[in-house]
């Protein structure tokens, strides 16, 4: 018998660490762009698990891959090689810059791997150890990735900070130039600061960083945990900028709900890692997780998902422009692909709650920003439905 909402809330309160607020509804089923709660109410999901279920909930190809693999082998440890991880690594390498891949479980772990790469590289190139990072960034919840995060509120009470990070203003190339010293080994950034408020890097800024790294002998590290795997209508956001990074991380959508992450390095950097010593992960790249990853890559490359994301991102932006013309509370629309932020300021909290009441699930991002993250296979009709709800709940 399914517990009631009240029983679930009581269990949550009594037995779970309060790292999250208990927020009704309690979800029990998902299909495509829809979620159903414990009371049977249906929702249009424009959160996709914070950019995780980018192919929609319970995507048939991913479900089939998980089911099939679970009946064969779910885990065998990285002491042994399994079939799926090398195949997924090849697909990712071929689709990016021909690098090598390390599989992990979460975005924070993948970013830790990139930080380690920069430190290892710096130790062999003049003893460099500092990494330039950016205000309003977000890189994860481990101590090192928190130190790299340009939002001090997330580190309160957790000091002393991990050393070696220099924080400067985003999209300000002069600030970066001024921060470079003989100790700087890398620059690390998100192509779009998602948690910070949906702020994309400008093309001039990204290309300027690449040039600086080349001139000064530094690595360019891109955190694509939220922007990777098609969210911006290209496989990775860096592909919009006409540059090649030295390393990228990704997580979230790569497993479409199964914990999976990775960082990808240029081949010459991969040689910094020594078996059994430099890095490791008990659950990194399990047969089950990488089966899901292969199904995700298959959908992105063969099912027209990226083409749909490009088409629907243009349609969503046009509908949001119409909405902005009607509602003065929308101060600005920012983003790329199907990662969109509406600057709403003081009405944000009420707007998110009102949308949920009407059956539309949306997120927040930064200060006063509503974040929209529809699935990459979202339909025109689903976008129209979301716009109609926002039109009803936003003040004129």
For this entry, give a set of tags:
four-stranded mixed sheet; 13 helices; 396 residues; seven-stranded mixed sheet; alpha/beta
What is the tally of helical segments? 13
Beta-strand fraction estimate: 15-25%
State the share of residues found in helices, binned by percent: 25-40%
Poorly predicted segments: none
Structural class by secondary-structure content: alpha/beta
Q: Which strand order does the major sheet show?
A: 4-12-11-10-7-5-6
Query: How many strands, what sense, and barrel or not for the largest sheet?
Result: 7 strands, mixed
Q: Taking all residues together, what is the mean pLDDT? A: 96
Distance between the termini: 45 Å
Assign an overall shape.
globular
Return the string of H and E elements: HEEEHHHEHEHEHEEEHEEEHHHEEHEEEH
Radius of gyration: 21 Å
Task: Characterise this structure.
With 396 residues, the protein is of the alpha/beta class. Helix content is 37%, strand content 17%. It has 13 helices and 17 strands. The chain has helices spanning 5-15, 48-51, 60-70, 84-95, 107-123, 143-148, 173-179, 203-216, 267-270, 287-302, 305-326, 348-357, 380-393, and strands at residues 27-31, 34-37, 42-45, 100-104, 130-134, 165-168, 184-189, 192-193, 199-200, 219-223, 247-250, 261-265, 332-336, 339-343, 360-361, 363-364, 369-372. The strands form four sheets. It has a seven-stranded mixed β-sheet, sandwiched between helices. A four-stranded mixed β-sheet has the order 1-2-3-15. The protein has a four-stranded antiparallel β-sheet with strand order 13-14-17-16. A hairpin with a 5-residue loop joins strand 8 and strand 9. Helix 3 (60-70) packs antiparallel against helix 10. It is globular, with a radius of gyration of 21 Å. The mean pLDDT is 96.
């Amino acid at each position: 018998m399914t517990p009631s909402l009240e029983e679930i809330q009581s269990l949550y309160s009594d037995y779970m660490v309060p790292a999250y607020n208990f927020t009704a509804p309690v979800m029990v089923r998902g299909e495509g762009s829809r979620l159903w709660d414990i009371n049977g109410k249906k929702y249009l999901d424009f959160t996709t698990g914070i950019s995780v279920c980018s192919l929609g909930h319970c995507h048939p190809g991913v479900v089939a891959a998980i089911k099939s693999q679970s009946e064969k082998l779910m885990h065998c440890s990285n002491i042994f090689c399994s079939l799926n991880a090398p195949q997924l690594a090849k697909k990712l390498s071929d689709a990016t810059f021909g690098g090598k891949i390390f599989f992990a479980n979460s975005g924070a772990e993948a970013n830790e791997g990139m930080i380690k790469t920069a430190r290892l590289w710096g130790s062999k190139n003049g003893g460099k150890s500092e990494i330039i990072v950016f205000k309003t960034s977000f890189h994860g919840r481990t101590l090192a990735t928190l130190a790299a995060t340009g939002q001090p509120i997330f580190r309160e009470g957790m000091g002393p900070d991990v050393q070696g990070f220099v924080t400067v203003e985003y999209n300000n190339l002069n600030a970066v130039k001024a921060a470079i010293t003989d100790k700087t080994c890398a620059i690390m950034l998100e192509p779009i600061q998602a948690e910070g408020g949906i702020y994309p890097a400008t093309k001039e800024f990204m290309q300027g960083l690449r040039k600086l790294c080349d001139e000064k002998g530094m690595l360019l590290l891109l955190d694509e945990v939220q922007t990777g795997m098609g969210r911006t209508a290209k496989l990775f956001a860096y592909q919009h900028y006409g540059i090649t990074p030295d390393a990228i991380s990704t997580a979230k959508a790569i497993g479409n709900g199964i914990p999976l992450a990775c960082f990808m390095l240029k081949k010459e950097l991969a040689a910094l890692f020594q078996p059994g010593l430099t890095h490791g992960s008990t659950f990194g790249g399990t047969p089950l997780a990488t089966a899901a990853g292969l199904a995700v890559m298959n959908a992105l490359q063969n099912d027209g998902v990226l083409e749909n994301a490009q088409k629907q991102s243009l349609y969503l932006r046009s509908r949001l422009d119409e909405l902005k013309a009607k509602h003065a509370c929308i101060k600005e629309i920012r983003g790329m692909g199907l990662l969109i932020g509406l600057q709403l300021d003081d009405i944000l909290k009420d707007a998110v709650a009102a949308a949920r009441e009407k059956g539309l699930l949306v997120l927040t991002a930064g200060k006063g920003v509503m974040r929209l993250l529809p699935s990459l296979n979202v339909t025109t009709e689903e976008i129209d439905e979301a716009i109609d709800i926002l039109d009803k709940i936003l003040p004129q």
